[in-house]
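All the exercises in this workshop are built on plain-text protein records. A record pairs a protein's sequence with a compact description of its fold. Read left to right, the backbone structure tokens trace the chain's path through space. Once this layout is familiar, the rest of the handout is easier to follow. Here is such a record, shown just as it appears in the course material:
>
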Amino acid sequence: MLKKVRQRSLKKHIDKSLIRRDVSQRNAPLKSLGFVVDEVFFNDFEKLYELGTALGLQQKDVKIFSFVETRKKLPSLRQNQVTNKEFNWRGEITNQNAKEFLTAPFDALIGFYTGDHPYLNAMVAQSKAKFTIGFKGTDERLFDLLLAVEPNNFGDFKNEVIKYLKIFKKI
């Protein structure tokens, strides 16, 4: 019951965030890059940092925030991680690190997940990112660019991101 209420609230929260989204700085050059990642889907974060380096960014300009369904009992060094328990019944994020990440004005934010993922969709919608990139099959209202590549083929993904960012004159 509570899960259904939370899901409905997340959808309303996404719709409100999309209405308030500022797209005036969409064409700003790339100086910072953010990733919202589903850890079940992808957990090799070093490759994401390498993509940032290939785009001409330093590692400090690349931020990664991940989602896990449930946090393991083992201690983790990852602070930029959120679980479904950190969304209240109104669809709002209660994790302070996630709030800080979402208020950062990234020049580009990449949603590294596929399909309908309500929690990550909510994070992308609430983000203050100027330009958003996602994969085909996700909610297209959230992203400015949808890539039709297989996400598990990281080489193709990297080439497509670089190609389109050059086309849009962001790099």
Remarks:
- The longest strand covers residues 62-68.
- Helices lie at 2-20, 45-54, 96-103, 118-126, 154-167.
- The chain has one domain: 2-22+29-167.
- Residues 2-20 form the longest helix (19 residues).
